[in-house]
Amino acid sequence: MNVLVTGAAGFIGYSLSARLLESGHTVYGIDNLNDYYDVTLKQARLARLEKKPGFVFQKLDLADRQNMAALFASHAFDCVVNLAAQAGVRHSIENPATYVDSNLTGFANVLEGCRHSKVKHLVYASSSSVYGLNTHMPFSVHQNVDHPISLYAASKKANELMAHTYSYLYDLPTTGLRFFTVYGPWGRPDMALFLFTRAILENEPIKVFNHGKMQRDFTYIDDIVEGVIRVMNRIPEADPEWSSDRPDPSSSCAPYRLYNIGNNQPVALMDFVKAIETALGKKAQIEYLPLQPGDVPATYADVSDLMADTGFKPSTPVPQGIQQFVDWYLAYYSH
User: How far apart are the C-alpha atoms of 328 and 332, rounded to whole Å?
Assistant: First the structure.
């Protein structure tokens, strides 16, 4: 296939692109290389991709309507995987405008491009954060998610609504993936695993929010990539069972689907910290803090739809995934 991956220099975008290239697909990667976190890490990921045959990169911002339209006009993409977004719950409270530009305007440009160039399937990243004030566990794609508690979460919910509109109006097949706390080698420096590992190695205290009473459905990067690839190969169709009398949020009378991709096993934050300590062979100094605005105390993915439709369920144990991250971190930062 000829695949467009947006956010190709990002954590998930890089990992997916590498896997697609190894499978013989052509990958056209775009990224705006913004400085939300260390740009040298993004450049290092790109440098690895550029060594592989079949990879083309263009520095491009999703919000650049004219150049996005030109990109779609000059290429015939079989599938588009939209992983470019301004990420981060906490950052969205301080910098709302960047979320509007990237996650709303940018996504609208992706949808327009897919519509006009007759893309066969748009797969896009949503987020577990859309569950917001929902407390019924595990989180299911069949639940309504109308009470987000951060602009980041609201922008991801908006992406699902925008995608549905294009699926309905233009018969564009779209699949939204709600990722649950992704971690692993080449990960994001603003995420807990990266922050904790660095702080422990530098003998600095780690910040543990909600006084440690947090649970996260930590999902290893290879499981996320496998889930994305399985879904890419499964183009959604209109759901014949869908009823407007009892609307199921996960499907539609249009070619539209939503899936959770999570490990289906929430881990207490303090157990996560212990696994990092074990992998590093070093104890953490802990600073306990209250729950931050926009954060939810627990996440837990129901992945039964993903399993039923693709035959795949994430399964990498957290201690194994953390060890693989620590091994990468020590090797990467020692050079």
Answer: 6
Token pair of 278 as six digits: 């074990």
**Are 80 and 122 a contacting pair, CB within 8 Å?**
yes
Q: Do the Cβ atoms of 63 and 102 come closer than 8 Å?
A: yes
Closest CA to 297 of 219, 217, 218, 215: 215
Q: Is 152 a catalytic residue?
A: yes
The predicted structure's pLDDT at residue 88? 74
- The CA-to-CA distance between both ends of the chain, in Å, stands at 36
What CA–CA distance (Å, rounded) separates 192 from 40?
20
Per the listing, tokens 């150049």 go with: 67
Cis omega (within 30 of 0) for bond into 138: yes
**Do 3 and 49 contact (CB within 8 A), yes or no?**
no
CA torsion sign for 12, 17, 23, 27 is positive
> Which residue numbers in the chain have pLDDT < 50?
none
Helices 269-280 and 318-332 meet at what angle, rounded to 10?
A: 50
Whether the Cβ atoms of residue 6 and residue 81 lie closer than 8 Å to each other: yes
**Separation between Cα atoms, residue 174 and residue 283, nearest integer Å:** 45
- pLDDT the model gives residue 205: 96
Determine the pLDDT at residue 86. 82
Confidence at residue 335, expressed as pLDDT on a 0 to 100 scale:
57
Q: How far apart are CA 215 and CA 264, in angstroms?
A: 12
Q: What is the pLDDT of residue 234?
A: 97
Q: Which residue do the tokens 């996320």 mark?
A: 224
Return the closest-CA partner of residue 102 out of 34, 15, 4.
Answer: 34
Q: CB within 8 A of 22, min separation 6: which ones?
A: 52
Q: CB within 8 A of 170, min separation 6: which ones? A: 115
| 3-state secondary structure (DSSP) of residue 302 | coil
Task: Give the active site residue among 99, 152, 300, 329.
Answer: 152
- C-alpha span between 44 and 187 (Å, rounded): 12
